[in-house]
Write a sequence for this structure.
């Protein structure tokens, strides 16, 4: 199945705001291990390091709070989220509903521009895996899923999917990523498979996405067990 010829070949260019740049910088620090799960983020210090206002940092952290990446306590402090086994189960139970629905919508409105964006993210994942660049891989992974949500064009679905934004790298927010052997090349190819299934129609795309999410859930469970010294399931 080819891209839908009735849809535009390109997607609208979304400006990268200073808030987006701060979100990217914080994500990179989390993925690099410079910010650990449960660690407090000092907004004034971060603003000074990034050369932006504290209001910009506050807005970025609020967006990341809405995505479950950080936990922002009103008028108190912000810390990096740290997921428990129960929270992993809850996160992925919701993801198993929302993300297959999102890819089914994307399959119906697929355009060449959308395909190019998704392929670009996969190529970034492949390149990062070759360099053993975990932060680079995770950022590309995060952006792949954010692009999926955006392509749906459904503002309600996009808003709902923000609540599961941390799911692709939940294993890092378990605090056990360092002890977990990860085949990042295979993870990149999982995303390429989803792109291929998008071109085979909504049912195929949703089915494959469901299968991969379940595999990724087990990946996060293994990370959590590794962090706690338990036995992986």
């Amino acid at each position: 199945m080819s891209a839908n010829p009735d849809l535009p070949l390109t997607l609208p260019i979304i400006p990268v705001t200073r808030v987006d740049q701060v979100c990217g910088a914080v994500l990179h620090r989390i993925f690099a291990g410079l910010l650990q799960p449960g660690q407090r983020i000092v907004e004034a210090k971060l603003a000074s390091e990034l050369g932006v206002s504290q209001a910009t940092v506050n807005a970025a952290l609020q967006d990341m709070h809405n995505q479950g990446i950080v936990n922002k306590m009103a008028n108190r402090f912000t810390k990096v989220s740290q997921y428990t086994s129960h929270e992993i189960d809850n996160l992925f139970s919701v993801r198993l509903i929302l993300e297959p629905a999102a890819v089914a919508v994307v399959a119906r409105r697929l355009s060449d521009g959308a395909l190019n964006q998704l392929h670009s993210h996969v190529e970034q994942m492949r390149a990062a895996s070759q360099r053993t660049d975990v932060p680079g891989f995770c950022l590309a992974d995060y952006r792949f899923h954010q692009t999926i949500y955006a392509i749906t064009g459904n503002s309600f679905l996009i808003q709902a999917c923000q609540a599961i934004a941390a799911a692709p790298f939940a294993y890092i927010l378990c605090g056990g990523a360092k002890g977990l052997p990860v085949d990042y090349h295979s993870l990149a190819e999982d995303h390429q498979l989803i792109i291929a299934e998008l071109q085979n129609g909504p049912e195929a795309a949703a089915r494959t996405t469901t299968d991969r999410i379940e595999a990724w859930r087990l990946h996060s469970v293994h990370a959590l067990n590794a962090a706690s010294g338990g036995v992986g399931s």
Observations:
- The first helix runs from residue 18 to 31.
- The radius of gyration is 18 Å.
- The longest strand covers residues 70-72.
